[in-house]
Recover the amino acids of this structure.
């Protein structure tokens, strides 16, 4: 029997290894920021590109492809996206999708892993450093994840995640500047790994926190997820969050196509090349009707 929320006692406690981990990587990123003033121009560009490519692995891969099935991808694209998602160091695809699906199914309830009702800090990063509410585990039983592990790419990445993440997320990004333009190895490590990692984490975290607290609700004013053009530009199109929670099946996560949406642009290119197909969208009439029925009227 699955208990109701009120039947479950919850006393949050800190996960000290995670607390220490986040303290360490943030201190290292501050040092990386200091060292970035001494880094070569090519290294700065590399940090930016690593953030973008790792972000695509999350937005186009873990989020729109594997979490929502908003489009389908052929094997070469799935392998490429899995490699980029590994580069992001945001856990393996299966775990990422598992938490995201339960977030949508039970958004802003005790079963939501990063429940925004518990405050900005909790939804931003706190949910990773405290024990999750028991309802998260209980409600996971109600969601089907079989499609994820039926994909050999997801299964392989999960099986070999530790060596893959060390290689793709740490070693290769650090060695690129060191090998190709003789960047100092310490500068390369602290900028291309630590600084890049922390920046990309906080961009992703803002979708859980900022996008559930600040912005507009043109599609559904009864949910807390918000649209923010600034966050959409920063987070590669993921900031149209009120739209996304209203129409999670849309591969574009917005009604504007690739405008202000780098991830949609990437998926459209892949579709043009025949690597992505069955792109799901919402028709304009349905969107307009939903705006009239439940959206905030914005002048």
């Amino acid at each position: 029997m699955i208990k109701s929320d009120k039947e479950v006692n919850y006393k949050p406690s800190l996960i000290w290894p995670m607390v220490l981990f986040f303290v360490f990587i943030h201190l290292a990123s501050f040092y990386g920021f200091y060292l970035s003033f001494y880094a070569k121009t090519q290294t700065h560009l590399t940090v930016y590109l690593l953030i973008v490519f790792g972000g695509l692995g999350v937005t186009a891969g873990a989020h729109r492809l594997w979490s929502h099935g908003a489009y389908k991808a052929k094997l070469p694209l799935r392998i490429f996206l899995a490699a980029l998602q590994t580069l992001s160091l945001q856990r393996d695809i299966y775990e990422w999708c598992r938490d995201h699906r339960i977030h949508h199914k039970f958004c802003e309830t005790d079963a939501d892993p990063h429940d925004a009702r518990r405050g900005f800090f909790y939804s931003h990063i706190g949910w990773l450093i405290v024990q999750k509410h028991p309802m998260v585990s209980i409600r996971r039983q109600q969601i089907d994840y079989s499609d994820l592990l039926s994909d050999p790419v997801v299964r392989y990445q999960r099986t070999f995640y530790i060596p893959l993440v060390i290689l793709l997320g740490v070693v290769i990004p650090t060695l690129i500047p060191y090998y190709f333009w003789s960047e100092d190895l310490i500068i390369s490590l602290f900028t291309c790994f630590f600084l890049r990692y922390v920046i990309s984490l906080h961009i992703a975290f803002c979708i859980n926190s900022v996008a559930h607290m600040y912005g507009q609700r043109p599609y559904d004013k009864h949910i807390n997820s918000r649209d923010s053009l600034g966050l959409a530009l920063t987070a590669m199109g993921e900031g149209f969050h009120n739209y996304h929670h209203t129409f999670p099946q849309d591969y574009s996560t917005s009604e504007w196509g690739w405008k202000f949406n780098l991830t949609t642009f990437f998926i459209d290119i892949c579709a043009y090349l025949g690597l992505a197909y069955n792109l799901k969208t919402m028709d304009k009439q349905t969107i307009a009707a939903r705006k009239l029925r439940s959206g905030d009227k914005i002048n």
